[in-house]
Amino acid sequence: MKKNVLALIAIGFFLLSFQQAQKGLLEIPNLFPKPSYNFKNNPLDSNKIKLGRLLFYDGILSKDNSISCSTCHSPFSAFAHNDHDLSHGIDDKIGVRNAPALFNLAWQSSFMWDGAINHMDMQALAPISSTTEMGENIANVVVKLQKDSFYRNKFYQAYNDSIVTGEHVLKALSQFQLTLVSANSKYDKVKRGENEFTDQELKGYKLFQKNCNSCHQEPLFSNYSFGQNYIAVDSVLKDFGKGSITKLMKDSLLFKIPSLRNLKYSYPYMHDGRFYTLNKVLNHYISKETTLKFKKDGLKKISLSPNDKVDLISFLLTLNDKEFVFNNKHRFPRELLIKWKE
């Protein structure tokens, strides 16, 4: 009986997600599993999505109005950044991690490299309150937005209430980010029967399935769990990943496994951005030092010849979604320029 009830609940959530897709507000690819996000508590709405997009690109969320979400999450980098290794914040402060790419968030249940946030609607609190990022708090953000007639109007359009609340700020940001769905790469088109892999890409695909798919599972190309990446701890950053949050030895040096989609746009790689090319990432995983660590942990050695690396990278490049990266619906809203000029 209990299993039947749980099954009905799961079906209900899926149907609700499908209803959102029918409204044209959220793309749910046929290849993808059911979203993890519970839309029942934050049903998508076009005005809320527009509000979230405005907030995402506006520095008003930071203490000195200089840093927006898009400062570290550029649409042209698959909503990551690639002009420096580590995130930059207010007063030219430098953070301790590389900004992860933002897409397919509806299929994720934990956020940040260390999993410190376990709900999409709460995620924005972390960068807003970080002293090395936005250096602000949500209460002050609400005060600033409430004083702004532009935003009072936008909140009224979205929520039928011009009173700004922290909950509405966070949920609007979620709404915009939930619409960032990347599922139109060459890989996706091949799976839909619209294209074919080249011989080299097919060889790389087989290598991927043999060596990478356990952590970077299709079709999202991550299982979004936490794992070791076997890179040395930076002596300055001293970042121990999930272990820094839980304080448990078993979680030490565990980092959230990123998706391999859009690698062309989202470099540099790893939580600290130490690798700028895919070749260097592969060299790391087949190195003698990493192989010894694999053996110690009971993992299978990864062996790749120079030709194998070329073939594997050729396949990984089929995961790039140009249409997503250059989608005008996700870019900076011109409406903000008008607001700033007033």
Provide a descriptive summary of the structure in words.
- The chain has 342 residues and is mainly α.
- The chain has helices at 2-22, 46-56, 69-72, 125-129, 138-147, 149-159, 166-178, 186-191, 199-211, 242-246, 263-266, 278-286, 288-296, 306-316, 322-325, 334-341; strands at 226-227, 255-256.
- It folds into two domains: 41-182, Cytochrome Bc1 Complex, Chain D, domain 2, CATH 1.10.760.10; 186-320, Cytochrome Bc1 Complex, Chain D, domain 2 (Orthogonal Bundle), CATH 1.10.760.10.
- It has a two-stranded antiparallel sheet with strand order 1-2.
- Helix 2 packs across helix 7 (166-178).
- It is globular and about 60 Å long.
- The model has no long low-confidence stretch (mean pLDDT 93).
